[in-house]
């Protein structure tokens, strides 16, 4: 469901760039206030994510949870977003709700989590540049520093180590992630069961390249993350 929409002229690029900002999470770990509406400095988490998305794209779609129609209308009225829509119960449903309102002439579509307010403008531009350079999709990632174990359950129901992957081959993926618009649409129209956008592109044979992410680009999922983000926010200035 579209809440509100404004028309904004496109800036000169190889083609219009649209950014989808996903903010439909319930944020139960924060209690009554969804995480995207918590303050980070003087502004809300969602405001930071929308501002950097706005600076790096021609158009911005924000996806909100049911019941947040008023917030969506305000974000469009203030110019923080061009379109506000209501998302679904799953991430893929929310992305598809946004895809439904994005113009057919879009060249690149960026998907960004509102819960990553510290992603830099340079990172947004870097993933878009990678798609302009020929990639079907570009995702930022950082090295995995912890040892990762794949577990299984034995006949007694206990968790046991099944494998220790070589962590030099592993990365932790972040957003923003950029996609050729036609590839992302095809991926979401496919019957692939993956819920992650990049995994959907992989499933239809698309090429997903990995670029350097940012250590400060943490995802806020709980109060501890917000406290760390506040320290990083002050440090980054």
From TrEMBL:
EC number of this enzyme: 2.7.7.60
A GO molecular-function annotation: 2-C-methyl-D-erythritol 4-phosphate cytidylyltransferase activity
This protein's pathway: Isoprenoid biosynthesis; isopentenyl diphosphate biosynthesis via DXP pathway; isopentenyl diphosphate from 1-deoxy-D-xylulose 5-phosphate: step 2/6
Record key words, sorted: Isoprene biosynthesis, Nucleotidyltransferase, Transferase
Alphabetical list of Gene3D superfamilies matching this protein: Spore Coat Polysaccharide Biosynthesis Protein SpsA, Chain A
InterPro entries per record: IspD, IspD/TarI, IspD/TarI_cytidylyltransf_bact, ISPD_synthase_CS, Nucleotide-diphossugar_trans
GO biological process: isopentenyl diphosphate biosynthetic process, methylerythritol 4-phosphate pathway
HAMAP family for the chain: IspD
NCBIfam families per UniProt: ispD (TIGR00453)
Family the UniProt entry places it in: Belongs to the IspD/TarI cytidylyltransferase family. IspD subfamily.
Name of this chain's protein: 2-C-methyl-D-erythritol 4-phosphate cytidylyltransferase
Species the sequence originates in: freshwater metagenome
